[in-house]
Amino acid sequence: MKDVVLLEKSELTAGSTWHAAGLTTYFHPGINLKKIHYTSIKLYEKLEEETGQVVGFHQPGSIRIATTPVRVDEFKYQMTRTGWHATEQYIIGPEKIQEMFPLLNMDKILAGLYNPGDGHIDPYSLTMALAAGARKYGALLKYPAPVTSLKPRSDGTWDVETPQGSVRANRIVNAAGFWAREVGKMVGLEHPLIPVQHQYVVTSTIPEVKALKRELPVLRDLEGSYYLRQERDGLLFGPYESQEKMKVQDSWVTSGVPAGFGKELFESDLDRIMEHVEVAMEMVPVLKKADIINIVNGPITYSPDILPMVGPHQGIRNYWVAIGFGYGIIHAGGVGKYLSDWILHGEPPFDLIELDPNRYGKWTTTQYTEAKARESYGFNNIVGYPKEERFAGRPTQRVSGLYKTLESKCSMGFHAGWEQPHWFYKPGQDTQYRPSFRRTNWFEPVGSEYKQVMQKVGVIDLSPFGKFNIKGQDSVRLLDHLFANVIPKVGFTNISHMLTPKGRVYAELTVSHQTPGEFLLITGSGSELHDLRWIEEEAVNGGYDVEIKNITDELGVLGIAGPHARKVLQKLTAEDLSDDVFKFLQTKSLKVSDIPVTAIRISYTGELGWELYHRREDSAALYDIVMDAGQEEGIDNFGTYALNALRLEKAFRAWGSEMNCDTNPLEAGLDYFIKLNKPADFIGKQALKQIKAKGLKRRLVCLTLATDDVDPEGNESIWFDGKWQKEPWTWGKASGITSQSLDD
Questions:
Q1: What 3-state DSSP class applies to 149?
Q2: Which residues are within 8 A (CB) of 121 and not within 5 positions of it... i.e. 6 or more apart?
Q3: Which end of the chain offers a freer environment for a tag, N or C, measured as fewer CB atoms within 10 Å?
Q4: What is the predicted pLDDT for the residue at 735?
Q5: What confidence tens digit (pLDDT) does each residue in 200-231 have?
């Protein structure tokens, strides 16, 4: 694609790029974000050769320092997942660390996580090389060319207006850095972004550094919360101060970015970072004698969860974003390729739902964004536990009707703005949030909830589900095109998958045919707008006469499951719930006591159960009625941790764990739901036929393992014949890693 235009407000690198520290690393705790880092580094390595522009790329490697036992556990946890990638990563001991970084005080150091090939690059030179390469291949770069308005046209194209004239575009990508909010407002969006002040310190020449034979690796002192690297013959180090001390540039959120701001800095504030400076001096004693020659304090844009927002935006045709980059240098190359591939081929090259701009919604207020940005900045170097919860900005306005009833009884988890019970505690049990790489205080309570559902009857709040109503004269035809399964008959439900053109699993939903031509679609909380965007786009592009309504916030959902579920519910309704009359995967409108519900006979637990869809304002009353009716049967609550254990044992797949845009449905064992012989030419059908004809190279398997204190969390690599498997494919949260992974 050659007809690409970049409109730059002032000059290249203005904003956050020109003053960046330029760090590059292969490391990321996320499986797929590592691919973004890898692509960036591999691009930067060949830029000089390809463009003739010097980029100032240094690759001395990097070492993350562990000074506590739990940090060593974190390194070992990360090593269990490293087999997914071509990049090298090692745990190294104190002797090796000192050999590589001889200026360290080794008193507290227990271990290091070493990534060869990490380093730093000059941001200005990098940008100029990328610009030269873009021009070489046909792109047009215009600056200064500030965009003054964005006008959507009825055919999905855009008129992009600048002082120099207008550009007609098939699609637009907002990549405007800390001006991204202003650009978003032009199309009626409030992007949840906030500028924060980040400082780093540069020293003059240090004799001990100058005397070194080779460049020092980049150092990350995680407990000290700073990075440190060599800068010529001196050192550069940048701390991430606590959320209480860090500074948000909130005036830019309320009043906008100052009109002329481009290559300016904020006034430095050494006092704000002094405790980190002192820690750095203790870890690297030569800093005590060093002179500070520069303190850089510039703006960086943060999203609430520190991850950027990348991809097409729900609700606005052909509007894409690449915004919210707290680490723009290492993400730039990989995200550029990722977006290019997506635009060219009509689907993402691999799954990166954690960067989906649609993970935020109307519940993401400015107050929430600021609270989370403060937290995310301050937590830059905290221990990254599995099942981590962060509590700033919670709860949002998006709470279920059961929140007040349940909040004192359970540990809540955050799901797309919602609070949902993870696990419940009983009197005398430890109720604190205690994350760990080993079994912790929720393990026994979750086991009790599991038994509750298997042996009696349990109730779960499922209100965070994404819920869509689709109706209209073309509704059946649209869904037949979107889904690989057949369309269920009126009064029935099925599990259906939307595939990409290449035959990968874009989404899994349950589809209920409520009345002729009217459907209720249900998806996971984290996929709500991700799935809705795909459905809406296909409806518009195909000219389908349908009405699509997002009713997620209008409906509450109560799940009831277990061998006594029918007995409890039958007390509350005149509807016959017997197996012959209310069959598995049937859906009916009925009343529970006097509360109208849509009841679907389905349960992700794999046990006898129903999901009861009802008005959100009826949730508390419905819950109380069901709990009262189940006293004789020993009814009790259960949360999503127990739900996950139950579904895994039934081999029920979960989108995002056992299937996503990296997998096709055949290798994920979803053959039963894929109807290649149905007449409709659903998206991905032809690709899937070819995949089936060629035969599968991998498939999902369930592994049982013996472990006593360390459980797999998903995405661990599998050992076979004493080697990591190059194409590891784990069974969700029950993958093949033994307790040795943390204890060896």
A1: strand
A2: 22, 24, 44, 55, 56, 57, 58, 329
A3: C
A4: 36
A5: 999 999 999 999 999 999 999 999 999 999 99
